[in-house]
Amino acid sequence: MDTAPKHIAILGSTGSIGTQTLDVVKAHPKELSVEVLTANTNADLLIKQAIEFNPNAVVIVDESHYQKVKEALTPFDIKVFAGQESLNQVVQMSTVDIVVTAMVGYSGLLPTIKAIEAHKNIALANKETLVVAGDLITQLIQENQVFITPVDSEHSAIFQCLSGEPNKIEKIILTASGGPFRGKTTNELKQVTLAQALKHPNWNMGAKITIDSATMMNKGLEVIEAKWLFGVTNQQIEVVVHPQSIIHSMVQFTDGSIKAQMGLPDMKLPIQYALSFPDRWKSDFPRLDFNLYSNLTFEQPNLSTFRCLALAYVALEKGGNMPAIVNAANEIAVAAFLKEKIGFLEIPTIIERAMNGMWFVPKPTYQDYVATDNETRKLAQSLIK
Ligand SMILES: NC(=O)c1ccc[n+]([C@@H]2O[C@H](COP(=O)([O-])OP(=O)(O)OC[C@H]3O[C@@H](n4cnc5c(N)ncnc54)[C@H](OP(=O)(O)O)[C@@H]3O)[C@@H](O)[C@H]2O)c1
């Protein structure tokens, strides 16, 4: 039976998740139609994508590129907007069904709130949104009766394990690849370079999440994301290092049975499922051949070497605005590491000092989150010489 295509807005269409989302659209032209594309600074790619996918509107956040995008798209029937505020408006367009939040960092928070308030379903890649303000987002989702489907491969795995499952969760087992520095000692981490940190063994991703994977902060952010997405307690989330990244995560039920979701490490599958749910669409992604993976291994994460994961656990326990503090300090520290202004081991040190130096708000409002993010960034920046 033919159904109308889902109209999607892709926030961050020029990034790793954004471009792979467009690959999924290309493979499913009857099921998906692109309504909005947005980029921060990459005007050339945004123009190319707009010409190929013919959206209703595009946003270039960096206003200095507006003229270029506008001129290039003048022959086409595509609206062109610029600036951060435009993101908050395009997600509310009446023609949009689903907003794919594929932008990186805290900047995803407000557009996601605006999209939910306009009753749009969310395909969530931007985990920072839930890390910063998980309580606010879950409350808004309930109030506005919208649906959130996870794009993160681990959360998609859990979501798939839970699909059609009426029974109670005993625990969630989040798998982690361990990143490029798995098994290294703290002493060895003192010497690692930016180029080494950017070389993830299994996944090809944007720069920020690649560094987060190397420090294992990514897993810490995902633990917090899982708490809000699946309504479990902190004690019900366990992290297991699984270097092959074949099992994307697991759910253990109260009878002790464990369900796992597996596949090759390819983000297109979870992206597609987030958009096809509750259906599964046929795909020609490469299939997992068990004969090539005779060794699936598991080990405990090393919290004393990978301090970022330990700090994320502290933030999870503390709650309130502490995860927002961790997120902002991490964004500043990772940006400084990417510019080679600080060493790898300074990332957790800056985060810890920000956690100790910021004020604590047990039940933050949206304004508290904004102030926390602002002030933490200033504090973290002051710690970078
Ligand atoms: N990559 C993965 O495999 C993966 C897996 C799971 C979850 N995620 C999550 O998905 C999100 C995106 O990750 P990514 O790896 O795709 O990042 P990425 O490759 O760095 O792409 C980020 C996108 O966001 C845009 N952007 C950056 N800063 C912005 C701002 N201030 N305002 C508006 N747009 C902005 C970028 O535009 P420009 O291109 O113009 O800079 C780009 O389109 C992150 O939250 C990440 O944790 C990613």
List the helices and strands and how they pair.
Elements: E1 6-11, H1 16-27, E2 32-39, H2 43-53, E3 57-60, H3 66-73, E4 79-82, H4 84-90, E5 98-101, H5 109-117, E6 121-124, H6 127-144, E7 148-150, H7 153-162, E8 169-176, H8 186-189, H9 194-197, H10 207-215, H11 217-230, E9 237-241, E10 247-253, E11 258-262, H12 268-276, H13 307-318, H14 322-338, H15 346-357, H16 366-382
Parallel strand pairs: 1-2, 1-5, 2-3, 3-4, 5-6, 6-7, 8-9
Antiparallel strand pairs: 8-10, 10-11
The structure holds NADP nicotinamide-adenine-dinucleotide phosphate.
Can you summarize this structure?
With 385 residues, the chain is an alpha/beta fold. Helices cover 45% and strands 15% of the residues. The strands form two sheets. Strands 4-3-2-1-5-6-7 form a seven-stranded parallel β-sheet, with helices on both faces. The protein has a four-stranded mixed β-sheet with strand order 9-8-10-11, covered by helices on one side.
SSE arrangement, N to C: EHEHEHEHEHEHEHEHHHHEEEHHHHH
- Give me the secondary-structure category: alpha/beta
What is the total domain count?
2
* Poorly predicted sequence stretches spanning 5 or more consecutive residues: none
| Rg | 20 Å
In DSSP terms, counting alpha (H) and pi (I) runs of 4 or more, how many helices?
16
Q: Separation of termini?
A: 62 Å
Residue share in helices? Answer: 40-55%
β-strand amount: 15-25%
**Order of strands, widest sheet:** 4-3-2-1-5-6-7
Beta strand count = 11
Give the biggest beta sheet. Answer: 7 strands, parallel
Listed once per kind, the bound small molecules are: NADP nicotinamide-adenine-dinucleotide phosphate
